[in-house]
Amino acid sequence: MLTSRQKQNVIGEHRSHDADTGSTAVQIALLSRQIDELTAHLKKHPKDNHSRRGLLGMVSKRRKLLKYLEDRNPKTYAAVTKKLGLK
Predict the structure, then answer these.
(1) Architecture of domain 4-84 in CATH?
(2) pLDDT tens digits, residue range 31-47?
(3) In sequence order, what are the residues at sequence separation of 6 or more whose Cβ sits closer than 8 angstroms to the Cβ of residue 33?
(4) Amino acid 83: pLDDT
(5) Is the pTM of this model over 0.90?
(6) For residue 79, which of 13, 5, 12 has the smallest C-alpha distance?
(7) Residues 6, 34: contact at Cβ < 8 Å?
(8) Across residues 58-79, what is the average pLDDT?
(9) Closest Cα to residue 61, out of 86, 33, 27?
């Protein structure tokens, strides 16, 4: 779980303007950060199947948001994937 300070840092890095807290790029960045944290948790606790199911849901949601962003704004898509190190 991300703290509010961590969320604010991620939002600050990926926002397009001062009031931007929910754009597609910000949502993708927040999901990526949560996925990284949950992946680290699952490495320590491999039998935690409830969290694994949540992880799969997050990955699916991020994939859908990336597809949406690729269709709507390819330039932003390229910048976000490069910045986050995604394929």
Answers:
(1) Orthogonal Bundle (1.10)
(2) 999 999 999 999 999 99
(3) 2, 6, 10
(4) 94
(5) yes
(6) 13
(7) no
(8) 97
(9) 27
